[in-house]
TrEMBL record:
<protein>
    <recommendedName>
        <fullName>Lipoprotein</fullName>
    </recommendedName>
</protein>
């Protein structure tokens, strides 16, 4: 799973803020990473965001005027399986905690898909099968474990003639 690589670039891009989205449909990004010595919180969307870095005896709060156009869809995959073609990530929420020796994280991605829920779920189930990733299916929800042992679910719901959905990945 390559999603862990998103956190450092997101932090750098959020601080940069050098480009503006061409449309008003910016992906909302929320990152909450905490450890024994402090943490980092990033909240960003089409209207800007905030970066908060806190630790023992120090805190930094930065307003970010706007967020860089990210191509999260290209960067995201689970064991080589991407979202249904032309899907659009609408929200990213990362909550990580590395306190007292525990290493836990939950990643949630909201997305829209140009296909109906059944078609998108069928396509992704087929892609997981091609990669040898064992999944279970309940209606239009897929569930499994990635090669690192992290649990994931991908759910699809109707959104008119197309689908909206959520990917949830849980580590720890």
């Amino acid at each position: 799973m390559r999603l862990a690589f998103l956190i450092p670039p997101l932090m750098l891009l959020a601080a940069c803020g050098s480009e503006e989205k061409k449309t008003g449909d910016a992906t909302e990004v929320s990152i909450n990473a905490e450890g024994d010595g402090g943490g980092v919180k990033i909240r960003a969307g089409k209207d800007g965001g905030k970066i908060s870095i806190g630790g023992e005896g120090a805190a930094i709060n930065i307003d970010v005027p706007h967020f860089v156009d990210l191509d999260i869809e290209s960067d995201f995959d689970i064991d080589g399986v991407k979202l249904y073609p032309n899907s659009k990530v609408t929200k990213v929420d990362v909550d990580a905690n590395a306190r007292n020796g525990a290493d836990k994280a939950t990643v949630k991605l909201g997305f829209t898909s140009p296909a109906a829920p059944k078609a998108a779920a069928d396509w992704m189930a087929g892609e997981f099968a091609k990669k040898g990733v064992k999944i279970t299916r309940s209606g239009d929800m897929l569930a499994g474990k990635d090669k690192d042992g992290d649990d994931f679910t991908i759910s699809f719901a109707p959104d008119g003639a197309t689908a909206k959905g959520e990917v949830v990945i849980v580590k720890g």
